[in-house]
Specification:
The structure holds 2 protein chains of 2 kinds. Chain A is an alpha+beta fold. Chain A has one domain. Chain A is built from 3 helices and 3 strands, in the order ββαβαα. Chain A has helices spanning 25-38, 56-62, 70-77; strands at 2-8, 13-20, 46-52. The radius of gyration of chain A is 14 Å and the shape is flat. The N and C termini of chain A lie far apart (30 Å). Chain B has helices at residues 4-15, 21-32, 35-48, 61-70, 91-105, 142-158, 169-193, 201-234; strands spanning 53-58, 82-88, 109-112, 124-130, 133-141. In chain B, β4 and β5 form a beta hairpin. In chain B, α1 crosses α2 and α7 (169-193) runs antiparallel to α8 (201-234). The longest helix of chain B has 34 residues, at 201-234. The chains are: A alpha+beta, B alpha+beta.
Chain lengths: 81, 235
């Protein structure tokens, strides 16, 4: 699966996430470009990225930063041994 | 397809802050040229090595802009436009994974940051080229990955310069201590796995127990590193 992520670095929060089939990379990339263009006039700190993973759960493990706040990551950090 | 000159001209304009629709479209065109190489590498990792992979067919615009501004590198020289991330259990698995990649692909460029961390970041990066396009494979163990995720999140909260060793001193100190502590624990675990063949069974048991006790001490230290950080955040 492909996941188009819009993450706000300033707030540390996920703004939106859209899913695409693996074979839809051209469509997903085009959507990513549209989103980036739409954000041109807005505030900075916006991150738009296309990621591929087996599932949303797998993505949440390899890219926690987009899904968890700093507080949530700290709360879990003690268990990361 | 953009020529190298066109790519570098685009990079120069982006570095100078000319981020408009035309340049975003050209940047996307450039990034799309890496998809074939990305797919090739991903197939090797998933279909041949049977690894669980998260991929990034192309680096985000904001990350490219930061890299262009931070380094003197030209856009055409950036090695991680496309990348894949593999997270394995421990350093023994990481070494095995690296050996498999070398055996399949031969001469690949390896940047082993485990014993020479870059601002605390430890991992093994492998650059694989396909049709002239590089793809960066990040091989991380779970503890290395946990550190990297925490570092990224702190960078969002306290500024991206944190990742490059600048900014809030207590955050830098925390990340540095966490990295060193994690490295010591990982190295101990690797020693447990790599006990000499010639060692007697009873000696192996005793050595594993000794290393286990050391590990417990390091875990306590790790916990105190987190406690100190939480106390700072709470202030």
């Amino acid at each position: 699966m492909l996941f188009l992520i819009h993450y706000n670095r300033s707030t540390g929060l996920l703004e939106s996430i859209s899913e695409f089939h693996d074979k839809d990379i051209a469509r997903a990339s085009s959507r990513k470009l549209e989103l980036e263009i739409s954000l041109l006039c807005g505030a900075g700190g916006q991150e738009v990225v296309l990621l591929e993973a087996d599932s949303l759960e797998a993505l949440q493990q390899t890219h926690k930063r987009y899904f968890k706040t700093l507080d949530e990551m700290q709360a879990n950090s003690g268990a990361q041994k | 397809m953009l020529s190298n000159n066109q790519v570098d001209k685009l990079g120069g304009e982006l570095r100078d802050g000319r981020i408009d629709e035309d340049n975003l479209r050209r940047l996307e065109l450039f990034r799309s040229e890496f998809v074939e190489a990305y797919t090739y590498v991903e197939n090797i990792l998933v279909c041949i090595l049977r690894l669980s992979v998260t991929g990034r067919p192309s680096k985000s615009t904001v990350a490219i802009l930061e890299k262009l501004k931070r380094e003197t590198a030209r856009l055409s020289q950036i090695q991680d436009i496309a990348g894949c991330r593999v997270i394995v259990q421990d350093m023994a698995s990481q070494n095995k994974c690296l050996a498999s990649l070398r055996s399949i692909l031969g001469n690949v460029y390896v940047d082993d940051k485990r014993n020479d961390p870059k601002n605390g970041y430890r991992a093994v990066h492998v650059i694989i080229k396909y049709n002239g396009r590089p793809v960066e494979v990040q091989l991380r163990t779970k503890p290395q990955h946990a550190w990297a995720e925490i570092s990224e999140k702190f960078a969002d909260a306290f500024g991206q310069s944190i990742k490059y060793g600048e900014g809030e001193p207590w955050v830098l100190e925390f990340l540095s201590e966490l990295s060193m502590n994690t490295a010591r624990i990982e190295n101990l675990r690797l020693r447990k796995v790599l006990l000499p063949e010639a060692m007697k069974y009873s000696e192996k048991i005793a050595e594993r127990a000794r290393l286990g006790r050391l590990e417990a001490v390091l875990f306590k230290e790790l916990q105190s590193v987190f406690d100190r950080m939480r106390a700072k955040v709470a202030v």
